Amino acid sequence: MALTMHNKEFANKQIMDSTKYVRYTPEQVEALERVYSECPKPSSLRRQQLIRECPILSNIEPKQIKVWFQNRRCREKQRKEASRLQTVNRKLSAMNKLLMEENDRLQKQVSHLVYENGYMRQQLHSAPATTTDNSCESVVMSGQHQQQQNPTPQHPQRDASNPAGLLAVAEETLAEFLSKATGTAVDWVQMIGMKPGPDSIGIVAVSRNCSGVAARACGLVSLDPTKIAEILKDCPSWFRDCRCLDVLSVIPTGNGGTIELIYMQTYAPTTLAAARDFWLLRYSTSLEDGSLVVCERSLTSSTGGPTGPPPSSFVRAEMLASGFLIRPCEGGGSIIHIVDHVDLDAWSVPEVLRPLYESSKILAQKMTMAAMRHIRQIAQETSGEIQYGGGRQPAVLRTFSQRLSRGFNDAINGFLDDGWSLLSSDGGEDVTVAINSSPNKFLGSQYNWSMLPAFGGVLCAKASMLLQNVPPALLVRFLREHRSEWADYGVDAYSAACLKASPYAVPCARPGGFPSSHVILPLAHTVEHEEFLEVVRLEGHAFSPEDVALARDMYLLQLCSGIDENTVGACAQLVFAPIDESFADDAPLLASGFRVIPLDSKAAMQDGPAASRTLDLASALEVGSGGTRPAGGTELSNYNSRSVLTIAFQFTFENHMRDNVAAMARQYVRSVVGSVQRVAMAISPSRLGPHAGPKALPGSPEALTLARWISRSYRIHTGGELLRADSLTGDALLKQLWHHSDAIMCCSLKTNASPVFTFANQAGLDMLETTLVALQDIMLDKILDEAGRKILCTEFAKIMQQGFAYLPGGMCVSSMGRAVSYEQAVAWKVLDDDDSNHCLAFMFMNWSFV
What we know:
This is Homeobox-leucine zipper protein ATHB-14. Keywords: DNA-binding, Homeobox. The protein is of the alpha+beta class.
């Protein structure tokens, strides 16, 4: 008994010894740290092995070593959390300072508006007392007040060869820029959806009632001011519309700054307008508080200074005082203010296109926000917050995106100094075809094209059209996800042949279209997911045994941007180029694709209502500013949107096949235009208003038979009538089913496969946001939410036994990812003439987008 008590006391003492605090020597801590660096969470066997291999740890129990590693991991977690919180605190402090400055600026703007309001009231009260004799004086005074509101400084003519004169222009530009960046020189209005925060792009505002168009942004970036200035000065790296920027002269100033004379060319966004160029003075200097400023403005006859290069085929645009102010933050990082203010000479373009040049929101998306996003992207890449797979460096992936965008812009613009020349038309003015016999500019100088004596160059077929009531983001998303709606596999095979030593000749587009599926493989995306870089695998399928070249898989490098429907003023774009399996960093890229740019509603309201969803833009250009509205036209109270779509496809050709390839390209682009028009009709909801045109009725005998089976089966199972008149047959029956107010759709009925949609009426296609062709790629379980799938599984046996079932209201998802609600649904078996099960029909009642 005494021995047992002694053993228990010894065991308890041993437990207490093993759990008591152990003070480790520096040598023991060093040994444990070495192991921790290799394995922060060692197993029990590894801890025992550590004790055996390290004599200085022999007096420590394994359980105590386990506790040491637990504490060490906890300290590491706390250290990281503390560091993260310190970073967030610094960002919040800087953002608080930024918001306070913005608040001060807004208060000044309010005071200015109050003063203007009082001035206008005084003018209105004194107006009756004025006489006719001093009316001119009143007008002059009003004009003087307007000039005070939007001052336009008048500069004396300066000596072009005098650096002092240029410095005076630079100092005036600096003062004007600072008044816009931090003052009230421009009436700024914050863009909708731009919420300031430590992890957001910043505060973005656009101009209202000022000369030209302007945009402003301010935000936080965790980069050094000098690094930010270096990035922003390299305009072609982040401004996708910049064709070139040449620094023609650099003049140092006495205050440590520099003056640069710059010539910049920009691309036109569509085929129906001329490109713009700028002759600029750029002034870089430092302020007394340590801030770094880089400001720019155009040199004109009114400002003085040297005369720039002649505009040639460009339209000379004017940049008013713009630039960026970079202030260092305490603890690292910078606060950036960016201002872009330009006059793009909108009156030189057709009236229908003027919104592209008069919209400050488009300017904000293309320049101001693009610069902020680019800086934030590089900052996060530098800090290691962004990790890309596939062994590609972020800089390489950015280069791919820039090359795709630049190649597409080159194709749209077709500059003469790049070697482009127009081919004669085939009689139609809808498609323009141009050729370029300098392939090295597009496919890379590393390829020795002298080995292919028959190689003729690059051919581009392009067209533009006006879209109405079609959201650009939705259209581009559809084109990206449903390539079978517009692409032709044979043409894709011909495009891919430019990467081979002996191109595969496909002289015309095949009527069979795109015979197989495509798989999208993500490659990279920007911080805010507004742009995606991806690889598309086109699964090969031969049309006939001799078409061996079409049996292999093909690959496209694809750039997709602007597919967020909530973004204001963003251009939606889908650009792609064929690549081979090796996909080298210097792979040649021959870009083709689509670009959809939104137009402001102002221009659309002036043009009056349209009779159809899509219009040929060439016909719209015939109506100038003096055009009149059609008689009986009404205001579009339910007007949604207008946009310009530009399509460009590039192909290589051999000398002896040039005319055949040109004919194929014209035919293919026209077929793509027709497909896009059908897609636009499909994804534009038919409930937008009375001007919406209906979708085309499927008039095949199979459709007539299916309509009869659907109506008959509904009557057999439920005892009710699906359609209004039982005596309807043939086309009348199908027409009534097609225009039924509820969404009616049919699914395949197979025991070993997921149900796939095979038919839908017009309301069903609107609900799913698809077309009859793309409908067959949508599975039933993909559109139902989890609750809907559970209910359907529960009621499926009842449907098969009883023939029908009523399903409660719920939620589903369209093919575009939009949420749809419905009050009730009915499911029933569709029987054929032999009373055999043909398919499963659904009717979703009172559905609407959420």
